[in-house]
User: What shape does this take?
Amino acid sequence: MSLSRKRKKELRKLQREANNLWESQQVLVGQAANVAREAGRQLGKYGREDLGPQVQATYGKYAQPYISKGVDVSRDVLTHRVLPATGAVVGSAMSVWDAANDTREKLAKGKGLSLPDSKTYAKKAEKYGKDATKALSKKFSALEPKKQGMGAGGVIAIILGVAAAAGVLYAAWQTLRADDELWVADDPLRAPDA
Assistant: This one.
């Protein structure tokens, strides 16, 4: 099948126009990618410079006092009530143990049973209690809570970053979607329907 010179000329012209359109679309896609990259960078800056400090200040103003108060109350209950009671229980148990050992030794020597000296064992119980309280207090003070992981500001910045990226992708899609004015029609041009 052979084409006339006029038809070949028209096809070459159409091919050039299609190539020009394709090149302009490639440039447009490249520019959209640059805009998306820059938008992501700007969003990161906004999160670090504006949003992060604002979230941190709001947290410090509203939430931190209540959290600190709760931690202080818990620490106070533990150090002033639980640890001394635990120390007293441990001291009493050790005192009873010592009394039992002393009684066993007296029986083994044939001295018989006698009433234990309550002052001596009271002093020993108090000493054991104080020592146990000190040891438990040292272990507890070493268990200070350490900040780990990302805070609320980081999570919010990530969410906003994803939303911004989705917005940029949606804008690019709206720009590049198949509009009748942007693409070459397959059928010959005809007058619009009235």
User: Anything to note?
Assistant: The mean pLDDT is 76. The helical segments are 5-109, 118-141, 152-176.
